[in-house]
Amino acid sequence: MSYAATPVRTSSGVVIIAPLSGHLLPIEQVPDPVFAQKMVGDGISIDPVGETLFAPCDGEVIQLHPSHHAVTIKTAEGLEILMHIGLDTVTLRGKGFTPKVKEGDKVKTGDALIDFDADYVALNARSLLTQLVITNGEKVANFAPRSGVVTGGKDVVLELSLTGSETPTAEKSTTGKKVISQAIVIPNPTGLHARPAAVLANLAKKYKSDLRLKFGEKQANVRSVVGLMGLSIDNGDTVYLVAEGEDAETAVAELTKEMLAGLGEEGLSPAPAPASVAQAEINTPAPRPRSENPNIILGVAASPGVAVGNTYRIRHQEISVAETGENPNKERRKLENAIAQAKLEIEALRAKVHGQADAGKAAIFAAHQELLEDPEIEEMATAAIDEGKSAAFAWKKTYTYQAQQLAKLQNELLAARANDLRDVGGRVLRILTGATVEEISYPDNTILIAEDLTPSDTATMDRSKVLGFCTVGGGATSHVSILARSMDIPAIAGAEPRILDLPNGTPVILDGSKGTMRLNPTPEEMERVKQLQIRLAAKRQADLAAAFEPATTIDGHRVEVVANIGNIEDAEKAVALGGEGVGLLRSEFVFMERDSAPSEDEQTEIYESIARVLGPDRPLIIRTLDVGGDKPLPYLSIPHEENPFLGERGVRIGFDRPEILRTQLRAILRASHAGKVKVMFPMIARLEEWRMAKGMLEEERQKLGISPIEAGIMIEIPAAAVMADQFAKEADFFSVGTNDLTQYTLAMDRGHPKLAPYVDALNPGVLTLIGVAATAARHQGKWLGVCGGVASDPQAVPLLVGLGVTELSVSVPTIPSIKAQIRELKLSDCQKLAKFAIAQATAAEVRALSPLPEE
């Protein structure tokens, strides 16, 4: 049954029209207890097929949520009608929503309120189910919801009979003392959105006192969901409960406790109370590994090489800002201009690093540009400006708070970005305040000491003066460490905090390969190391001269040394340095720094050009797109996951978006005529996944009528290593991704700010899995390579050879030295060393082994 666009009203009733086209569901069936239990109010839910939210009646827009996913209209009868698009859509921070109205607008039935991108919301939120709820249900005597399919702006969804009089939800008392709560810092990640607001409003209804929530100069009735949402209270904001009445003290005490606990929102726990002395003793963290030698500092091997010099500590400048600003509009313009200028500076820095290294390093600064477009950061800063704060004060408060929150997280993807956010935030703040970057005059032979460094610090370091650096923060996979390796700067991360107490000028020997720094060596020791560096430089020249000789051990065992690359420039460098092929083409670089996915023809051309550089005899192994986890793509929407490293990444993305994987497979097959092209699938955990991937490859091959190519899998999930014997019967080859295999075996995020020092691929457990996979491959007549970072580690090479690895895919600059090292080894000795290593207890014990253990 359809009705006219204008709702029918009688003296005692109102008819509400569908705000969306779609299928109606009873509100009780919504998979969200707050809506299903009618804590927000009674109403109905719609499973939408349209992408525009329409006004369900005539009225006034009294509240538009800052994230634009919810809007409330007040009718002439005083009904407050909340429309909430999707579930958990507040976490999208406005992305995917385009409001067509603003607060205070008068609307007619059928007027457009909000346009939304249904595909984006469906992929990134919990549900598209849209709720229409009467938040002041005390005005309604009877709800008569409809069912079935409705057309937005036309069909009736609710018929309401009104009470005709004010019916308070509880008898309020304003007699009694006035009580104000302590400062309440909102712990909810997305603030007081509909769900926690509804919980708070319902909790408040059992008290008789008048209850208000005060936020800055604004306040709202605690019993009003719309009023609470209208305050736009975000995570970390400070509010106060104000109660007046006979049960004011009880109300404030109990509601404060509930608010600090997050009002039942998932993933939150009550805010900790101040610790007593006893608690402090209990909560004292376990001591970090320290050297028993006071002159030895332990850390993480972040960038290989040895440096001899004197310490020099740097501290990041503290910029003072005025709290009060001018007109909010002026302050907002200041912030917008500063962000725009910062983007230009970062783009220049990105281009500089791109020229020095490769696109992979430049992508670090592309990520910085993305941080400047983060809607949550912008929203928090703008909210502070609207309260009268200066742009500089608002920005500084926002980015420092956000960085602190990120650093606390155990999610590596987020925690690792805290340092990047400080870098970006400081750049914008300098522009806002006009502060000049402090020019640091480094002494000659400087070994830099710092609590932490930013990528900008590293990229602009004076290499003529700075020979190496050592930081307390970071890990081997941080952006700073990646840059250090690309710039050939020896570095240690995750070092003992006592380095910060070292006087400037302390003589040290920094060994970035071993993750150690020796303090106060004698002049003779320092001279010996300098002479060693001279000899190493001469050795590098000798290695380079012999780069095209095969990597064959003294007893005749051949090991193939190939390269990890990201583009054609890397391929050219690898060939020039004696590389025997490409063991890993990280094809995700083909997909990065773009607004859309590359076409089949574009990919074919790229893969063909690299194959031609390598020639007909050198293999080119192309890993299919490996994104997700710590490698997002801006145009590939991946739903939010609590633990992205255990979610959709690698080949799983290809199964979920088969058009992307099939397009890439077609391009690889088409390029196979240009060289010795092979394909490799990442993140294979189950035989079913391998068979699905191989099946897709075969289907596309048959469609193209192209000859078969070899196909293998990455061994980077422990299950694949344990089941290697079964995989080896079907796959053509294995390649071990030691970075992921290590983090999954140890259950430690490899970039976690606290755990990074312990994520070492030479852990005996990881080495055992590599050995198991290598043995399985050999039994089936297949080969196993290693393409993870440990393949370039000189300490690991003898162990990998001894475990049965027959191909090492290494970073391009290390090709000559790895080949030279293998020529000095004996397979029989390596096998003994590997057997001895896996019997050790820790990675540190493995690294401490001499080249050959004594019998």
Short recap of the structure:
With about 850 residues, this protein is an alpha/beta fold.
Mean pLDDT: 82
Biggest sheet details: 8 strands, antiparallel
* Widest sheet, order of strands: 9-5-6-7-11-3-2-13
Low-confidence stretches: 1-8, 165-174, 269-288, 355-360, 410-414
- Anisotropy-based shape: globular
Beta-strand residue percentage: 15-25%
Oligomeric state, counting identical vs distinct chains: single chain
How many strand units? 35
Number of continuous helical runs: 29
Question: Secondary-structure blueprint of this entry?
Answer:
Layout lengths: L12 E5 L4 E5 L6 H4 L5 E7 L3 E3 L4 E6 L5 E5 L5 E5 L12 E3 L6 E2 L4 E5 L1 H7 L5 E5 L5 E6 L2 E3 L5 E7 L15 E3 L3 E2 L8 H11 L5 E6 L2 E4 L3 H6 L7 E7 L3 H13 L16 H6 L13 E3 L1 E4 L2 E8 L14 H29 L2 H13 L3 H12 L4 H18 L3 H4 L2 H16 L12 E5 L4 H5 L6 E6 L7 H8 L4 E3 L13 E5 L4 E4 L3 H23 L14 E6 L2 H9 L5 E5 L1 H4 L8 H15 L4 E5 L27 H6 L1 H14 L4 E6 L5 H18 L6 E5 L2 H5 L1 H5 L4 E4 L1 H9 L17 H16 L3 E4 L10 H7 L3 E5 L3 H9 L3 H11 L5 H5 L8
Parallel strand pairs: 22-23, 23-24, 24-25, 28-29, 28-35, 29-30, 30-31, 31-32, 32-33, 33-34, 34-35
Antiparallel strand pairs: 1-14, 2-3, 2-13, 3-11, 4-10, 5-6, 5-9, 6-7, 7-11, 8-10, 12-14, 15-19, 16-19, 17-18, 17-19, 20-27, 21-25, 22-26, 26-27
